[in-house]
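Page 47, continued from p. 46.
Same chain as before, 102 aa.
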Amino acid sequence: MPSSHSSITACLCTTIGYRSGIDSDVFILACVFYLVTIRDAVGVRRANGMQARRLNEIGELLKEKGMLENYKKLKEVNGHSPMEAFVGSLLGFFIGIAFCVL
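Result:
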């Protein structure tokens, strides 16, 4: 499923670039916001999900061995794959163009 966050920020960046020009300060700010959003969707959230999954495995293993009495599982957030972020960005780009032209 395409990333809605990357889609929205790509649409915002495209619309600002079309309306204000790519040499405007607002467009640069939108591009930085877009890059931070993509980095969060692909890198940080995905890494957090993998780390939580591994910590849950370790917690269950320690619980089975009797080293822990109870273990509350961590929430596993998967994040987005790079392809999902890319498809979301393309979708947002084309939606932004459609909003500006139509």
